[in-house]
């Protein structure tokens, strides 16, 4: 986890005298101290001298731009700061910005309040002037209102920090394509130039046999050491298979994991796509190997789906180092349960589901693939955790990208599925299966998703807004009539 910092910049002006400015600085220092001590923010906040002039605002924001450790700025108008003095600085700022609308004092001091107090504590006034200029400039920013010492407010700032890091680090995401998109499939296609313009992603192709050379170069000793680690860590489901043969198949995945990771590191890529129909010299479809790489933080998409691979990587970055994290994975909608009161979608993939979402035991299993022409691949099998989560789908509509964000409720399936040789999740989309699935299909959402228990729809929508793309939400408030109108209006809003 990179040690990012967020600059805390308080706005004021020199109209109220030195004593008032001294109070402003002291108050904001105390607030920064409280935020850092709270344990509610994943990244440190750094106090900056009060911004009172056009020149100082510009200078500070340009320093933020070139400081690699600065992931964003948090601004607050303690007093009044005429917003014209922010225009040039804001136009030059390239880091994510939070407008924290707060106030130093919690309660109005009824017995002592006078005009000096009013002039010193007028965020209700100053933050409105300041907020206006963003709207006038059509500038993206996050607004959070609330008392700075409240845990719930601090936690919101913390989740925004994660979004800001996702925004900043999106431009460091490099996706390695060792296979093209699956033939004839539409929804996994997309404009890679536009993806680089909007998200900063570099999406590059490599011949599969180039990465296979890196796999072949992994020594037997390294491979065997990793197989030992697997056998220590996971249950082995032999199910009548020959023990030696089973282990040999597992070793193929261990060798792929090591070879892939070395190649990705060497070439500086953080996400990868594969395709069961384009495996070159690889002996198996990477299953267990890809599952383990995803767990380490790599993005992944099946069948050449680089958009989902990029999203999984961004979401892994946003959840990095999170305490009590429940997991983030590539996922695919497979089969419905349509029994009344038990409705849901069984989620899985051919093999590649991230073990970070596993609940309880993880086992290694081998089964033939019905597709492709390789050895029976080893894979990790498990079921996923219960609880609320989000499923997202990034699609290319030809004239723009759209991010579809669905709140889902993950559950256990009613019964185990002993014959199913893949990891699974089971969820009911909000507001219910019928409306959720209808809205998803009307929005053009894919069968592949980037899924997480640890991020909120608000965070993903904020990320999309910062990228300048459309986001639509499917949740408890969704009705089909309203959703269809929203899609129609967005078509107009995004028309250029
Ligand atoms: Mn797939």
Mean pLDDT: 96
The overall number of domains is: 2
Oligomerization state: single chain
| Total number of helices | 15
Question: Rough shape?
Answer: elongated
What percent of residues adopt helix (DSSP H or I)?
25-40%
Q: Point out poorly predicted stretches.
A: none
What is the fold's blueprint, element by element?
Elements lengths: L4 E7 L5 H21 L6 E8 L2 H13 L3 E8 L9 H6 L4 E5 L13 H6 L2 H15 L4 E4 L5 H20 L3 E4 L14 H8 L2 E4 L2 H9 L3 H14 L1 E2 L6 H25 L3 E3 L14 H8 L3 E3 L4 H13 L9 E10 L6 E5 L14 E4 L11 E4 L5 E10 L4 E10 L14 E5 L3 H11 L4 E5 L4 H11 L2 E5 L5 H14 L3
Helix pairs in contact: 6-12, 6-14, 8-10, 9-10, 10-11, 13-15
The chain binds manganese (II) ion.
Compact description:
With 496 residues, the protein is an alpha/beta fold.
Question: Can you describe what's shown?
Answer:
With 496 residues, the chain is an alpha/beta fold. It has two domains: 5-170, Rossmann fold (3-Layer(aba) Sandwich), CATH 3.40.50; 174-493, no CATH class. The protein is built from 15 helices and 19 strands. The chain has helices at residues 17-37, 54-66, 87-92, 115-120, 123-137, 151-170, 192-199, 208-216, 220-233, 243-267, 288-295, 306-318, 433-443, 457-467, 480-493, and strands spanning 5-11, 44-51, 70-77, 97-101, 142-145, 174-177, 202-205, 235-236, 271-273, 299-301, 328-337, 344-348, 363-366, 378-381, 387-396, 401-410, 425-429, 448-452, 470-474. The strands form four sheets. It has a six-stranded antiparallel β-barrel with strand order 11-12-17-16-15-18. Strands 2-1-3-4-5 form a five-stranded parallel β-sheet, with helices on both faces. It has a four-stranded parallel β-sheet with strand order 7-6-9-10, sandwiched between helices. It starts with a strand and ends with a helix. The model has no long low-confidence stretch (mean pLDDT 96). The chain binds manganese (II) ion. Manganese (II) ion binds at residues 302-303, 332, 349, 448.
């Amino acid at each position: 986890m990179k040690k990012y910092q967020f600059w805390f910049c308080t706005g004021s002006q020199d109209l109220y005298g030195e004593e008032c400015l001294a109070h402003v600085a002291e108050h904001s220092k105390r607030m920064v101290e409280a935020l850092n001590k709270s344990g509610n923010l994943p990244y440190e906040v750094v106090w900056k001298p009060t911004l009172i002039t056009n020149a100082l605002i510009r200078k500070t924001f340009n320093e933020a731009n070139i400081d690699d450790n600065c992931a964003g700025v948090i601004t607050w108008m303690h007093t009044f700061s005429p917003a014209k003095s922010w225009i040039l600085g804001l136009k030059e700022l390239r880091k994510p910005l939070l407008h924290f609308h707060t106030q130093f004092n919690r309660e109005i001091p009824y017995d002592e309040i006078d005009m000096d107090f009013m002039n010193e504590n007028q965020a209700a006034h100053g933050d409105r002037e300041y907020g206006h200029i963003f709207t006038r400039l059509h500038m993206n920013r996050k607004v959070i209102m609330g008392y700075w010492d409240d845990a719930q407010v601090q936690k919101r700032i913390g989740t925004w920090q994660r979004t800001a890091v996702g925004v900043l680090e999106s431009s460091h995401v490099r996706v390695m394509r060792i296979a093209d998109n699956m033939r004839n499939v539409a929804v996994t296609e997309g404009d890679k130039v536009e993806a680089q313009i909007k998200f900063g992603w570099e999406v590059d192709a490599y011949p599969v046999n180039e990465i296979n050379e890196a796999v072949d170069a992994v020594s037997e000793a390294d491979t065997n050491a990793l197989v030992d680690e697997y056998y220590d860590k996971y249950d082995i489901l032999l199910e009548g298979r020959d023990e030696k043969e089973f282990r040999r198949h597992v070793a193929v995945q261990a060798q792929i994991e090591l070879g892939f990771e070395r190649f990705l590191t060497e070439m500086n890529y953080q996400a990868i796509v594969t395709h069961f129909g384009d495996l070159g010299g690889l002996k198996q479809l990477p299953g267990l190997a890809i599952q383990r790489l995803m767990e380490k933080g790599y993005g992944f998409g099946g069948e050449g789906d680089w958009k989902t691979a990029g999203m999984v990587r961004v979401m892994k970055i946003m959840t990095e180092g999170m305490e009590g994290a429940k997991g983030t994975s590539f996922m695919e909608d497979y089969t419905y349960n349509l029994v009344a009161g038990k409705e849901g979608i069984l989620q899985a993939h051919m093999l590649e589901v991230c073990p970070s979402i596993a609940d309880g035991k993880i086992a290694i299993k081998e089964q033939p693939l019905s597709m492709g022409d390789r050895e029976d691949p080893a894979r990790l099998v498990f079921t996923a955790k219960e609880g609320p989560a989000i499923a997202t789908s990034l699609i290319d509509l030809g004239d723009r990208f759209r991010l579809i964000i669905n709140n889902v409720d993950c559950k256990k399936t009613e019964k185990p599925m002993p014959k199913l040789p893949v990891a699974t999740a089971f969820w009911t989309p909000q507001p219910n299966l019928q409306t959720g699935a209808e809205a998803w299909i009307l929005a053009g959402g894919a069968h592949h998703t980037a899924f997480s228990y640890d991020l909120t729809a608000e965070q993903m929508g904020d990320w999309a807004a910062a990228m300048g793309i459309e986001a639509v939400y499917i949740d408890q408030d969704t009705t089909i009539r309203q959703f269809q109108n929203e899609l129609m209006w967005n078509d107009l809003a995004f028309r250029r």
